[in-house]
Amino acid sequence: MRLKDRILIAIFLLFFAEGASASENIWLSNTPPKKISKKIRHGMHGVSFIKGNDGREKKILWIRSGSFPVESQYANCTNTKNPVIFVCSPDGKLIKGNVSHGLWGHVLTFEGNMEGFYNVYLFERFVEEETLNIVVAKAEVLSHKCSNGHAGMRKKMLHRTFNEEIPFEIVRERIPGEDFHTFLSSGDDVTFKVLLKGAPLEYSKVMLSTQKRWVNNLKTDINGGAAFQLVGDYYPRFKEINKRNIHNFLVTAEYTVKKSGSYQGIPYERIHYAGTLGGSYIPSKTMYTSYLYGLILLIFVMPAVATLIYFYREHRKRPYKEYAFREKD
Amino acid sequence: MKKIRAFINNSNISKFRFYFQIAAFVLFVYGGYFYVTISEKLPTFACPFNKGSGGTCYLMPLQHQLHMTWSRFIGPGGIHLLKGFLVFACFGLVFSKAWCGYLCPLGTIQDWITKLRKVLHIRFSKYGETTFKGLKKIKYILLFLLIIIPLGVSNSLLWLPKFSHDIFPPFCKICPGRIVLPLFTGDTSQIYIDFSTKTAMTMTALGMIVTGIFFTGSFFKKRFFCLFCPMSALLYIFSKVAILRLNKNVAKCTRCGNCYRVCDVGIKEIADDVINKNIVKDDCMLCLKCVEACPEEGCLEVSFFNIPVFMSTETGFFKRYCLRNEIK
Ligand code: SF4
Ligand code: SF4
After folding, report:
1. Pairing relation of β-strands A266-281 and A131-143?
2. Domain map of chain A by residue range?
C-alpha cells in the first residue's frame, strides 16, 4: 500500500471510525484481529485467552462495531465513554471485567478459569435524537478443560438471565443434547430468544448474519423465539476441507417502544433496545463423514469374520479314526 | 443364619446375574434420560457417546486428563488426574472385577449374543492355551497406547512431532461401545467414516472394523471382547487387594476342571492353580459361574470384607447342574 493511501485511510479512521454511531451494532467477538491472531491462544469453541505465568487464563473479547462478523471494525467503538461491564462467573458471582485499549486492541478481559459459562455484557445507555438507546452486547464464554472433569455439566448448561441489571438480551437456546463439547455446525436449527426485562418479547426484529454476509431477518414469536438454520458458509474442494474451520455469526435484535421520560436530564420520546450476540460454528459433519461407507464396512466385516471362523473350524476338524486296543498288546 | 447361607449357596446365581445385568444395563444406557449420573469415573463401559448414559466410563476422562502438556501435570491438571484415579480406585477396590461380570453394558450385550447363539444351536469356540496367552496381552498393549497417545497429542514424545489430534481419544475411536451403545437409544450417528484426514479415516474405519469383529466374535466366542478390554487390565491392579474376592481352598480342589469348562472367558488357571488362595485372574469378570459349577464343598468361595458370601457346595452343584445340562 502506498504512503498516500495509508494517510488517507488514517484520516478516514480518525474522523469516522473512532466512535460508533447509535445505528451501528456493538458486539463482543472472540476473533482477534488478523495481525495479532498468532499471539493469542484459542481454546475450545474458538475462545481466546492469554495465559499468565501462574497458568491462569484471562479471557479476551474484542469490542467491535458493524452488522457483519468479518467487516466489523476493531476500533474503539463504544457509544459512550464508560460502558458498564457485567461479567458473571459460572458459580453466579459478579467478577471484574476490564475494558482496555492496548497491545491487543480494544478489548474486554476477565479472569476465566472456572468450569462453565461466563455471561459477559457490555451495557450502554444514552440519549440521541430524542431516543433513549439501551445497547446490550452479550457473549457467552465457555471455559472448559476436559482434564478438569465434567462434574455437574448438565446443570452448568442451563441459561442464566439477569433481569435487574440487563433489561434486554438475546439468549441462544441449547440444541438437543448440547454439552461442553458441542460445536454448532452448519445445518443446525438454532433458536434465539429475545427477553425484555426477563420476559419473552414478541415482534422483536432479529437478524442473523454470517461470515459470508448471508443475512436472514425474522420477527420473534409469542415465546420470544426466532429460529434460524445455520447455513453452510464454507465450500472448499473436498480434499481441502478443514473440519475445524470456525465460522462466525452475529445475531442482533432490536425493539422500539414509545415511552417518554428523561435520562441524565435529557428528555426522550421513545426507548430503543438493541442487543447483539456473537457465535461461531463449524462445518457440518455431513460434509466430510459418510454414514453409508461406515455401515457398509461394518456389515462387510461381520460375515467376513464369520467365514474366517468357519474355515478355521473346518481346518481343525480331524478325520474320523477308529482305535482298537487288544488286551494282549 | 445357617439356613440363609445354605439358601444362597444352593441358589442359581447365574439367574440372579441375568436380571441384575438387565437392571444395570437400563441404568447405564437409559439412566441419563432420568437425570441419573452415577459417576464419571466408572470402571464399566457406560459410554458418554450414548446420550442416555447414566454415567461415564473412566477410560474417556482418563484419556482427556492425559491430554495435557507436561507442565499441567504438576498443576491443577495433575490433581484432577489423581483425583479421578482415586475415585476409580475406590470403585475397583470395592467390587473389583464384578464390574465386568455384573455391570458392564458391553459385557451384557455379549452375554445376550451368546444366548442367541445357544438358541440357534451353534457350537461355541474356545481358544487353545497358546492362543489365549497371546491374545490376552492385547489388552495391556491397548492400555499402554491409551495412555501414551493422549500424551503424544499434547507433547512431543522422544523428540518426535506431536500426534495428530484426529487420533484422539484413541481408544474411544476404536471402542465398539461408542458405536453399539447409542444404537440402543436409536442413535446411529456413531456409524460413520470420517474422510477429513487420513488419520481420522483410519481411526473411524478401525472403529467400524472392531465393531464388526465384536458382533461376530461374541457370537462364536463367549465374552470375546473382554479378553482385549483395557478396562479389565486397569481393574486388575486392584483385584488382589479388593474387598470382593474369589478364594480357592486349594486343599479341597480335585482338579476336575468343571470351573474351567464353564468359564466364559476360558481361564484355565482357575482349575490349574493349586497354590494361590486369591484366585482372581486378570481376565476374570467375577461372574461366579465357576463357584456354581464346583462340586467340592467350600472349595471356591466369594468373600466380601473377608466374610464368605457365596461358596461352592455339593448340593448346590447337583441342584444347578445335574438337573440341567448347562455347559453348552
Ligand atoms: S471345579 Fe472346583 S474342584 Fe474342580 S477344578 Fe475347579 S476348583 Fe477344583
Ligand atoms: S474364573 Fe470364574 S468368576 Fe472368573 S470369569 Fe471365569 S467363571 Fe467367571
Report:
1. parallel
2. 3-287
| Burial of residue A281, with CB atoms counted within 10 A of its CB: 0-12 exposed, 13-18 middle, 19 or more buried | buried
Distance between CA atoms of residues B52 and B186, nearest Å: 10
B32: exposed, middle or buried (C-beta count within 10 Å: 0-12, 13-18, 19+)?
A: buried
Taking the CA atoms of residue A212, residue A213, residue A214 and residue A217 in that order, the dihedral angle to the nearest 10 degrees is 150
- Strand A41-42 with A168-172, pairing: unpaired
3 state DSSP class of A306: helix
Q: What is the pTM of this model?
A: 0.84
Rounded-to-integer distance, Cα A96 and Cα A242, Å: 37
What number of other Cβ atoms are within 10 A of residue A151's Cβ? 11
- Whole-Å CA distances, A299 to A192, A261, A285, B214: 41, 71, 22, 12
**Closest by CA position to B5, among listed B322, B315, B321:** B315
Phi, psi of B278 (to 5 degrees): -80, 115
Distance CA B243, CA B98 (A): 11
How far is the C-alpha of B213 from the C-alpha of A299, rounded, in Å?
Answer: 10
Give the distance from CA B100 to its chain's centroid.
3
* Contact (Cβ atoms closer than 8 angstroms) between residue A116 and residue A143: yes
Q: From first to last of the 329 residues of chain A, give the pLDDT tens digit.
A: 555 555 554 444 444 443 444 457 899 998 888 767 566 777 667 788 888 777 788 899 999 988 888 888 887 767 777 789 999 999 989 998 888 887 667 889 999 889 999 999 999 999 999 999 999 999 999 998 877 777 778 788 888 888 888 999 999 999 988 889 899 999 999 999 999 999 999 999 999 999 888 999 999 999 999 999 999 888 888 888 899 888 899 999 999 999 999 999 999 999 999 999 999 999 999 999 999 999 999 999 999 999 999 998 888 888 887 877 776 65
Residues facing residue A117 across a β-bridge: A142
* Cα–Cα distance for residue pair B179/A112, rounded to 1 Å: 35
Query: Which one of B258, B270, B317, B321 would you pick to mutate in the ligand 1 pocket, going by the greatest count of ligand atoms within 8 A of its CB?
Result: B258
Q: Which grid coordinates belong to A123?
A: 451495557
Q: Taking CB atoms and an 8 Å limit, are B196 and A288 in contact across chains?
A: yes
Q: Where are the domains of chain B?
A: 2-10+244-322, 14-234
Which of A149, A154, A298 faces B191 most closely, judged by CB atoms? A298
Contact by Cβ (8 Å): A257, A134: no
Phi–psi pair at A65, nearest 5 degrees: -130, 140
Cα of B296 vs centre of ligand 1, distance in Å, is 7
Hey, what CATH topology would domain B2-10+244-322 get? Alpha-Beta Plaits (3.30.70)
The residue whose CA is least distant from atom 5 of ligand 1 is: B255
* Helices (H), ranges, chain A: 3-12, 153-156, 291-316
Read off the DSSP letter of residue B264.
S
